[in-house]
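Work Package 3 (structural annotation) set out to generate three-dimensional models for the target panel prioritized at the project kickoff. During this period the team completed the workflow that converts sequence records into C-alpha cells, so that structures can be stored uniformly alongside our sequence database. As a representative example, we reproduce one entry of 218 residues exactly as it appears in the project archive.
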Amino acid sequence: MPIPTTPPDIDRAKALDAAELTVHIVNSFGTPLKISYNSNVGSPTILGNPGAGVIAQSTDIVVPRDFAGAIFVGETYNPANSKFEVSFSSPQGYRPGLDVSYVDGFSVPLVCSCSGVVVTGCNVNLFTRAKCPNQDNGVCNNPKKNVPDGPADPWFAPCQGSAYTYPNDHRANAFGMCDAGDIRCCIGVYCPKPSIQPGKRSLDWTEGNSTLIDTEVV
C-alpha cells in the first residue's frame, strides 16, 4: 500500500530544520533489557557510537542527519531481536522514518506512537500464544525473512500489517506520520495498540511491564 504522507506544517518544519533526533529510552519493563545498534552501509553512527549495553533505567541516544539504522532490544544479545528501524536521511527530505520490525525474529513486543497516535508495532507477546517452532537465544526466528511478499508465517501472523513480519509488509511503515519529531516507542504487552490491531489502549505510559522510548527533535 502507499506510504502515508502528511501535509507541510509548522511541526514538520521543526523536524526538517533539526540537526539531529534525540532518543530518550526509559526501561519500565521490570527487568533490565539488552540493547544494541546498527547503522546501514554509508550511514553515520549514532552520536557517541554507543556499543551494546544494558538498559537498567534510562539512556539517551542522539541520531544525526543522514542516519539510517536500527535499535535492537531483547532479553539477550541477538541480531534477530525485535527492532525499531529509524531513519533521518536526505533522500527523504530529512523527514523521520520509523517502523517496528520482526522480519528477522521476535524477542519482545514493540510499538511506537507519533504525536500521541500509535502508528506502528504490535503489543502481542507471541511467545504466550503458541510454541515457537525455531527458538534460539531468546528469539523466535522468522522463516519468512527472505520471502519478500509473505504472507506472514502463522506464528507471526497476529502482528502482520502492524509490525514488519516479512520484508514487504509495508503497512507497518510509519514514514510521513512522524514529521513533528514527537516519537514514543514502547516495549511490552501493556503498551497501547496501533489502530490496525484489534482494539485500542489509551496512551498511558506509566503502566508496568513496558519500556518507553521518547524521541524528540532538538
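Residues 1-13, 198-218 have pLDDT under 50 and may be disordered.
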